[in-house]
UniProtKB/TrEMBL annotation:
<feature type="transmembrane region" description="Helical">
    <location>
        <begin position="270"/>
        <end position="289"/>
    </location>
</feature>
<keyword id="KW-0472">Membrane</keyword>
<comment type="similarity">
    <text>Belongs to the binding-protein-dependent transport system permease family.</text>
</comment>
<feature type="transmembrane region" description="Helical">
    <location>
        <begin position="12"/>
        <end position="36"/>
    </location>
</feature>
<feature type="transmembrane region" description="Helical">
    <location>
        <begin position="208"/>
        <end position="235"/>
    </location>
</feature>
<dbReference type="InterPro" id="IPR051393">
    <property type="entry name" value="ABC_transporter_permease"/>
</dbReference>
<feature type="transmembrane region" description="Helical">
    <location>
        <begin position="114"/>
        <end position="133"/>
    </location>
</feature>
<dbReference type="InterPro" id="IPR000515">
    <property type="entry name" value="MetI-like"/>
</dbReference>
<feature type="transmembrane region" description="Helical">
    <location>
        <begin position="161"/>
        <end position="187"/>
    </location>
</feature>
<keyword id="KW-0813">Transport</keyword>
<feature type="domain" description="ABC transmembrane type-1">
    <location>
        <begin position="75"/>
        <end position="288"/>
    </location>
</feature>
<dbReference type="InterPro" id="IPR035906">
    <property type="entry name" value="MetI-like_sf"/>
</dbReference>
<keyword id="KW-0812">Transmembrane</keyword>
<protein>
    <submittedName>
        <fullName>Sugar ABC transporter permease</fullName>
    </submittedName>
</protein>
<keyword id="KW-1003">Cell membrane</keyword>
<keyword id="KW-1133">Transmembrane helix</keyword>
<dbReference type="Pfam" id="PF00528">
    <property type="entry name" value="BPD_transp_1"/>
</dbReference>
C-alpha cells in the first residue's frame, strides 16, 4: 500500500517537474538576480560592480536625486493610465460578453472570434494600426474630419487626446480576452436562478444585479487584478504611439526604467525601480483582493 502511494506521489511530481523547472529558471532566478543587481552600482560599461546595499533604493526617495523625479513622475503617469483603462476594460468586457451571449447560437462563435482576434496581434502591429488611424496630419479620422470641414484633433500630440488614444488602442487590443473570460463565467451561472427570479417578478436589471454579478464575482476579481497588472505594465503603446509625449505626459514608469537601464546604462538603479514597481503592484493586488472579498 505504501509502495503504491509512493509511486503515485512520484508520478504526480514528475508531471509538475517541467513547470517547476521553468518557474525556477525563468522567474525565481531572474528575480533573485535582479534583486542582487539592485544592490550594486551596476554600470554596463564598467566591469567592476560595487556593492552599495540599499543606496539605489534610498536615491529613489531622495527628493534631491534625479531618480526621485524619474520614478514618481513615471508612477503618476502609469497610475493615470490604470485609472483610465481598468474600469473600461471591466465594464465594456462584461457588456460585450452579455451582448455576445444573447446572440443566436449559430453566430455566437463568429462574434467571439471577431472580438478576440485583436488580442492575438502584437503590440507593434496595434501601434501601427492606430497610428494610421489617429495620426494628426495623415490619420484616417482626421482626413474624414477635414473632408467634413471640421477641425482636426491632435490625437497623439495634445492632452487629453493622447491618453484617450492610448486607452482606445488598449481597449481594442485587449478587450476580447476579458470578454471571453466573462462569457465563460456567465455560462456557468445556473439557469434555474434566472427562472426563479423571473417567477418572483424580478426584472432583467434586478436579475443582473442580484443573480449575475454575485455569481461571477470571483471572475470579476480575476479580471480586475489581471487588468490592473497588465495596465501597470504598459510600455509598447506609449513608446510607439506618443513617445511619452506631449512632453513627458504619457511617459510611463516602464519607459523610465528602460531609459535608465539602457540609455544611462545604470542597471542597479533600473533594477531597484523595477522591484519597487513590482512591490507596489503586489500591494495594489492585495488591496483589491481584500476589498472585493470583504464580508458585507
Amino acid at each position: 500500500m505504501k509502495k503504491s502511494k509512493w509511486k503515485s506521489q512520484l508520478t504526480s511530481s514528475l508531471f509538475v517537474l517541467p513547470y517547476l523547472l521553468l518557474f525556477i529558471f525563468f522567474l525565481l532566478i531572474p528575480i533573485g538576480y535582479g534583486a542582487w543587481i539592485s544592490l550594486n552600482n551596476w554600470d554596463l560599461l564598467n566591469p567592476i560592480h560595487e556593492f552599495v546595499g540599499f543606496k539605489n533604493y534610498s536615491k529613489i526617495f531622495d527628493s534631491s536625486s534625479y531618480l526621485n523625479d524619474l520614478f514618481f513622475e513615471g508612477l503618476k503617469n502609469t497610475i493615470q493610465f490604470v485609472v483610465y483603462s481598468v474600469p473600461l476594460l471591466i465594464v465594456i468586457g462584461l457588456g460585450l460578453a452579455l451582448l455576445v451571449n444573447a446572440l443566436p447560437r449559430r453566430i455566437k462563435g463568429l462574434f467571439r472570434t471577431i472580438y478576440f482576434i485583436p488580442y492575438a496581434v502584437s503590440v507593434s502591429v496595434v501601434a501601427i494600426i492606430w497610428l494610421w488611424i489617429l495620426d494628426t496630419n495623415s490619420g484616417l479620422i482626421n482626413q474624414y474630419l477635414q473632408n467634413l470641414n471640421l477641425p482636426i484633433i491632435p490625437w497623439l500630440t495634445d492632452m487629453p487626446w493622447a491618453w484617450i488614444s492610448l486607452v482606445i488602442a488598449t481597449l481594442w487590443w485587449t478587450i476580447g480576452f476579458n470578454m471571453v473570460i466573462f462569457i465563460n463565467a456567465l455560462n456557468d451561472v445556473p439557469e434555474e436562478l434566472y427562472e426563479a427570479g423571473a417567477l418572483d417578478g424580478a426584472s432583467r436589471w434586478q436579475r443582473f444585479i442580484y443573480i449575475t454579478l454575485p455569481s461571477i464575482k470571483p471572475t470579476m476579481l480575476f479580471v480586475l487584478i489581471t487588468s490592473t497588472i497588465a495596465s501597470f505594465n504598459i510600455y509598447g503603446q506609449p513608446f510607439l504611439m506618443t513617445r511619452g509625449g506631449p512632453g513627458t505626459s504619457t511617459k510611463v514608469l516602464l519607459m523610465n526604467i528602460v531609459d535608465e537601464a539602457f540609455k544611462q546604462r545604470q542597471l542597479g538603479n533600473a533594477a531597484a525601480m523595477s522591484l519597487l514597481m513590482a512591490f507596489i503592484m503586489i500591494i495594489i493586488s492585495v488591496l483589491q483582493f481584500r476589498i472585493t472579498n470583504r464580508k458585507e
